[in-house]
Design brief:
Length: 363
Amino acid sequence: MTSRLPADLTVVVPCYNEVLNVAPLVRALDAALLQRRWEVVFVDDHSPDGTAQAVRELAQQDPRVRIIERVGRRGLSSAVIEGVLSSSAPVVAVMDGDLQHDETTLNKLVAPIFSGDADIMVASRHLAGGDSSGLANRWRHLLSQAGIRLAQIMLPYPLTDPMSGFFAVRRELFDEAAPKLVGSGFKILLELVLSVGRGARIAEAPSVFRPRLAGESKLSPLVMFQFLGMLVERACGGWLPTRFVVFAAVGLIGVLVNLAATDIARFSGCEFNKAQMIGMACAIIANFQLNNRITYYDRRLKGVRWWPGFILFVAGCSLGGIANIGVAQLVYDSAGHWTRSSAAGAVIGVVWNYVVASTLVWR
């Protein structure tokens, strides 16, 4: 029987294209949380496979199941924030919707929080009794390990698995941290731990990361790229936005593309000026595509919106180039220092392009 008392535990499940895993996950939670008054909130980023509809059909039969469907917004971290803030339960747990997180670990995570012994409990794949064999291949193992080592450098707490997407938190503590959360990228636990301060009591419990049964893994080099941007933002004390860091990194890739394309054109017999134009065109296309897929992944332009966005991007970059040259010339005329003048122009160019991209292209 479903309890009519309010839930004391909310399980937040951010999801995208997990239609085949929705019903099995609810059944697994029902079996694992027999002693809890629980609810599950699926936060779906408008999945094209019908994930939201599958959750609605379950919610018609079970009032413990809820859905938040987001249209025009994407991203795991922001989905978790919305899901947690929609809850009135004193304890909130976060887990993936792909059945790779072992739902039986939930009781080990929430019990210390209910008893007042912990504020945050993390399910660790790297404690004794834990297992990370569910990562799909060696490449994903390497990505995960690299992220863990980078995160451990910054953390004020000795966590063995700061990249975990499976954790529980006291709701009041999350509310205190929420204004500091940027909500970009895929690793909300790391951002949360960096936002709660040193007084929080954080512990870990071993957990098994199981192989995926349906759907596709979301861990990719793109995710790690965004993760690195978030680390840089935190290292700078939050004054440098993650999106700007990633935008600037994409710009550096564009410089390499420009140089490579220019050299190829010159070796093919093109005159220098023509080769420069080819290199610049290749860099602009590469920058637009990478920004569309990485920097602004949650606002990605598709279909009929792609061409207008591309035209605006080209126009904005052209004006940015003019601003770059103008500022560099002004600094050079006043200071006479070549390197500083070029750097000043480059900074103005990047900032200008970022403003245009964020307010006009991917607004």
